[in-house]
Amino acid sequence: MYFKGVGLPEKKTHEVTINFYSKINPDKIISKNTSRCIEFVISKADTKASYWPKLTNDKTKPHWLKVDFNRWKDEGSDDEREEGDNAMSLDDMLRTANDNKLSFDDLDEDQDDSDDEAMPGLTEDKDEEKK
């Protein structure tokens, strides 16, 4: 895949050729231009093929290439699942947990706890006593 663009505010030209691990479907490439970066969703040509061990066939990972773990799919996950299905992201789980506030109403306040023991008094330093 070949990409060329101009970054702001320096108006610096960026150009890259990405050699993918295997063939991709160029008709299914989706791009999103944000204020900080450009994101691509790229589909493999053979959707039934096994997972790629890496994105490119280069020996080293380019420093500018990042993994979006919010979109990560494990090898055993269901590829057919759409976002609208019953899938819940980590953000959704945390938001749900935050909405279900914990209640301490069912705790027994009369029950003894090791934290309730009296604290020992402060002792003076032996050097202080000699003065």
From TrEMBL:
GO terms for cellular component: cytosol; nucleus. Residues 72-131 are annotated as: Disordered. Signal peptide: none annotated. GO terms for biological process: chaperone-mediated protein complex assembly; protein folding. PANTHER family: CO-CHAPERONE PROTEIN DAF-41 (PTHR22932:SF1), TELOMERASE-BINDING PROTEIN P23 HSP90 CO-CHAPERONE (PTHR22932). It comes from Culex pipiens. Residues 76-85, 105-118 have a biased composition (Acidic residues). GO terms for molecular function: Hsp90 protein binding; protein-folding chaperone binding. This is Uncharacterized protein CG16817.
